[in-house]
Every structure is written in C-alpha cells, then in structure tokens.
Specification:
The protein folds into two domains: 272 residues, Response regulator (Rossmann fold, 3-Layer(aba) Sandwich); 165 residues, Glucose Oxidase, domain 1 (3-Layer(bba) Sandwich), CATH 3.50.30. 35% of the residues lie in helices and 12% in strands. The strands form three sheets. The chain has an eight-stranded mixed sheet. A four-stranded parallel sheet has the order 2-1-3-4, sandwiched between helices. A two-stranded antiparallel sheet has the order 5-6. The two termini are 25 Å apart. The chain is an alpha/beta fold. It contains 20 helices and 14 strands. Bound molecules: FE2/S2 (inorganic) cluster (FES). The site of FE2/S2 (inorganic) cluster has 10 residues, from loops.
C-alpha cells in the first residue's frame, strides 16, 4: 500500500484483490504496458477527457492530458485517461445544451463504475465544463478542473475581432450592406487562429472563470491562453495536486459550498459573464445539494459593477485579461464582497490565493472606484409574462431600452422567424418587441442560443442596432443586445409566452424587475382555453427522455432524476 491514507482507496476494490477478480482487473490493464507496481494501492486518478476533432475548442486536450499524467506520476499516483461524449458548440445540432445532462450521466457513471479515486476534468467548449462538473459532483470524489484555455486574439484588417461577438456584428454588417460577403468569409481564419475556446467573455470563458471562482481550478486556470506554455505547467501542477487531494480526501462537496457559489455569482457579475452561467450554476448546485435559487443571481450580483472590459460587454479579449492579472485580480478588486475563507483545490483559501494578486492593466480590469458600468450584473425579471422568472444582462444591453414598452412581433418558432424576419411586409420598427416562442428546454428541445434574434434587414439598413427581444431561449455568451431570455415557464409547457399575439404591448422595466404582457386577464384566460400543447417532438431515445424529465430554466434545466449526489460507492462485481 502506498496511498498515504488510513482507509483503503476505492481502487483497491479492483486492483488490490488477491483473487480471480483482482487477476482480471489487473491482467487486462497490463496489456497496455503498465508495470505491477502501479497496482500497489497508490491513488488512481481518472483524467476525464473531452478531446474530439468535432469539438475544435478541445482539440488540443491530448497534450494537456499528457501533462496532467506527468504530474500524477510525479506525485506517486496512477493516471488513467478516459473519454466521455464531447460537445462541440459550433457543430452539434440541435444544440449542445440538449446533451449537457447526457454527458453528465456519462461522466458520473464512468467515474463510479471504474477504479477511480480522484478525477481531473478537462473542460473547454461551453457545455463541457458544466457537464463534467455536474457528473463528477454527483459522485463527490476529489476532483479538479483543468480548463483548456482560450484562443489567441483574432485580428482582421487591422481590427481585433472576437469569437462569436464579431460574427454577430459582421453578419449584421453584411445584411445591412456595410460589409461584403467575401470580406466576411475572409475573417473566418483570422478569428480562429490558434487552439483554444472562444476568447470573448462567452460561455466557455465565463465557465472557466466560474471554475476558478468556485475554487475548482488552480489560480489562473481560467485565463492562460490555450497555447501558452504556462497552461501546460498548470496542467502538470494539477496532476500533482489531485494526488494530494485524494490522500487528504478533499471531496468536491467541501469546495462547492454555498459560499463558493456566492463567490461565483459575484465574479460573474464583475466579469460581465454569460447568462448561461445561471443555468449551469443552478444545475451544479442541485447536484451537490446547495440551495441556490434564480433570485440569488439578482440579489447577490445585480448591484455589482462591471469591472472586466471584455467583449461582448467591453472591448478586450481573454488573452488581454490574462496579461492584466486574470480572475485573481478581479477577486481582489471585489474585496469584502468575496468570501475569502472559501476552500479551493490547491488547498488554500480564496483569500490566500488572491491577497496579493496584481492588476497590470487598469484598462482591462477596472477597480470598484472606476467601474466600466454600475449595477451591471444579471437581473431577474418577473411579471405575468414570466411568473417563474426571466433574465436580462444589462451590461450587454442598450441602456435606454432597459425601460421600454412596445408592440409584440411574434414568431411561433425559429423556422417562422427565419422565414419572415426579412420580409419587407413585416410590421416591425425600432419600438417593437420581437418575441420568439418554442425555444425553451422542452420546446426546441434543448433551449438553443437563438434568443439574440438577428434584427430585420429593414431595421439594420436604417442604422438600428438593437430592439427588445423576448424568448424562452438562451443566447450565446458572446452575444449582446437588450435580450430577455429564459422566460419561465416556457411556451411549450403552457407558459404565458405562448399566449402573446402580434400587436400585444409588452412592458420591460429592468430597474423594477418587471416583464408584463399588457393584456387583460380575461383575454389571456380566453387564449389559454384555446391553447393546445405542441405535438411531441421526439417519439423515443434520449430526446424523449430529455423532454419528459427536463426541469425549467429556473431549476437549471437539469433532468429531474439527476438532481442530487449519489456518491461513489463500490458497485457489485461484474464477473
Ligand atoms: Fe467552443 Fe465557443 S464554440 S467555446
């Protein structure tokens, strides 16, 4: 035995057996060339890898896994890499979010069913981070996240361009006749020019920052660029550290406490993080039994200032954020707003990790005395249009539209939107409120990132760049605009969003947290009586399971039967 612990490790229930079953567990592993001493009771570290050529943001993960292994070996552990389903945001249809919960099941069962004592989660592209953390949290073993890092800054025709954000703006320029299609196509290779995930403060970068703010990643895990050699040093250090965490039995639930989530919500506000973080943090909290509610995001985060000047709320990119000091500098700037006693995976508290964190560029990371925008955290709206809540991200919105009343232009689903948005006869102007139905968790299914509906061409050609948009969808963390998202209950579940008709007035008042459909209750009652649920979108398979069991956005859109931790007890033998 060489595990440094008083009690035997989980893996000894496989590799430590001196009988037929032990023979089977060890012998087949030895076909990979593992010598006998690796089965001597040392910590077995799973490296959960989301490498895939279909997930371009994670395509460099084999090298990262290799460095984690070096660290594990250095510390006396036995690293074993295993793949799980990988979600490439840009390729997978209908939306990666549909499969986040499926991946979490893959991760959970892969960990529990195998001789694993602790796990390093390799995460990058948007959904790979929450899905791996959710699955591991349901097992509650020692776990540590190594993020893949963002791409280098994009440059096109002398201008810095950012993943997603610049795609949305350039495509609107093409539709408005301000940019040629040929130039737009040329920008492709200028934007994505190195390994790594989106380098704006989109969902991937946001979730990497959440990992660090939660204490689940080493300091600077979020911001070191994917191709920077220091990313590989961090991976090696993480490999060493996870072995110590197993020896000290530091479980995930000791790190993912209520105060860790509160820290994450506050950091999300200060960085101008993605609205998707709300869904993912709610779902993750549900897995570890931390009571977290939608209103916590508003209560803890909305009054906070925007400190980090990154697209889509600002102008810089992740590479600049790292050079300026990264998440530790933001945590330090937030001062007493952060719970400094929260434990992190390196064995130190958040306060110890960030006490002396320098800020090297005050234009990228602002101080609280000089914020980019006051009261910029996510706001949770309620009213007769969203009794279960809805979100808006003020830092990415047009300030004058945060209080607005306008007539609805309703699209019944995304196909209806695409068919009619550029119809010259569409009755829409700058005061309209564009409404999209049928894009929630059950209705699409999977709650895609279509909430930031492109504006009608005729408005773009008049120089209009934003109108209020309302839907039960999500939006990419790289997107911007006055976009009300996650309307709950969703329209396919019979929420009031399903009852909106063209010409109805909708009132948005972010300061008052109000989202109202200004239609008399009797008329809404009449419409409700006429409403028919849409036909089932899936007759079988995972998609039916998802539609039947997915919770609404205010519960993080997890599957109802996945909520909670089920531990990592030793399963029965297979032979
Ligand atoms: Fe993978 Fe943006 S597409 S992080």
């Amino acid at each position: 035995m060489n595990n440094g612990k008083k009690t035997p490790l989980r893996s000894t229930h496989w590799f430590g057996l001196q009988d037929r079953d032990g023979f089977i567990h060890r012998s087949w592993m030895k076909n990979q060339g593992f010598p006998s001493n690796l089965f001597d009771g040392r910590p077995v570290i799973g490296i959960c890898n989301t490498w895939s050529e279909l997930t371009p943001c994670n395509a460099h993960f084999r090298m990262i896994a290799d460095r984690v292994k070096r660290g594990v070996y250095e510390a006396g552990g036995f690293p074993l890499e295993f793949p799980v389903m990988s979600l490439g945001e840009t390729n997978i249809r209908p939306t990666a979010m549909l499969f986040r919960n499926l991946v979490s099941m893959d991760v959970e069962e892969s960990i529990r069913g195998n001789p694993i004592d602790g796990v390093v989660l390799l995460c990058g592209c948007d959904k790979t981070t929450p899905s791996l953390m959710m699955g591991a949290a349901s097992c509650d073993l020692p776990a540590l996240v190594v993020s893949g890092g963002a791409m280098l800054n994009g440059h096109f025709h002398g201008v810095t361009i950012g993943s997603g954000t610049s795609v949305w703006s350039m495509s609107e320029d093409v539709r408005a006749g301000k940019m040629s299609c040929a130039d737009f196509m040329d920008a492709e290779s200028c934007m994505s020019r190195s390994a790594g995930h989106c380098m704006t403060m989109g969902t991937a970068s946001t979730m990497a920052c959440m990992v660090e703010a939660l204490g689940m990643g080493m300091p600077q895990n979020a911001t070191i660029p994917a191709v920077d050699s220091r990313r590989y040093v961090l991976a090696q250090e993480a490999g060493r550290r996870i072995v110590e965490m197993v020896r000290d039995d530091v479980k995930m639930s000791q790190i993912l406490t209520r105060k860790a989530f509160e820290n994450a919500i506050r950091v999300n506000a200060a960085i101008g993080g993605s609205t998707n973080a709300v869904l993912h943090l709610l779902a993750l909290a549900g897995r570890v039994g931390v009571k977290l509610e939608l209103d916590d995001f508003d209560r803890l985060g909305h009054a906070l200032p925007l400190l980090v000047n990154l697209m889509p709320s600002g102008k810089f990119l992740m590479e600049d954020f790292y050079y300026a000091g990264g998440v530790p500098a933001v945590v330090r700037a937030l001062g007493e707003l952060i719970d400094r006693d929260a434990l992190t995976v390196n064995g130190k508290t958040m306060g110890e990790n960030t006490a002396d964190a320098p800020c090297w560029n005050a234009e990228v990371i602002h101080g609280r005395d000089n914020p980019i925008r006051e009261r910029a955290g996510i706001a949770v709206l309620r009213g007769n249009l969203a009794p279960g809540g809805a979100l808006v991200k003020p830092s990415a919105a047009t300030p004058r539209l945060l209080k607005h009343r306008g007539r609805a232009v309703v699209f019944t689903d995304i196909e209806d939107f695409k068919k009619r948005v550029d119809d010259p006869a569409l009755e829409v102007d700058e005061n309209s409120v564009m409404v999209l139905q049928g894009a929630g968790p059950k209705g699409y299914p999977g709650m895609p990132e279509v909430g930031n509906m492109p504006l009608p061409k005729k408005l773009l050609q008049r120089g209009i760049t934003d109108v209020v948009r309302v839907s039960d969808a999500r939006m990419s963390g790289t997107a911007y605009g006055t976009v009300v998202l996650h309307v709950t209950p969703e329209s396919a579940a019979g929420g009031p969003l399903a009852l909106v008709r063209d010409g109805d007035e909708i009132e948005l008042d972010v300061e008052a947290r109000k989202l109202e459909l200004c239609v008399a209750a009797e008329e809404l009652g009449r419409r409700r009586a006429e409403w028919k649920a849409p036909p089932p979108l899936a007759s079988g398979g995972y998609q039916k399971l998802y539609i039947d069991h997915v919770l609404q956005a205010d519960r993080g859109a997890d599957l109802d039967f996945l909520v909670g931790a089920r531990g990592a007890g030793i399963p029965r033998e297979s032979h």
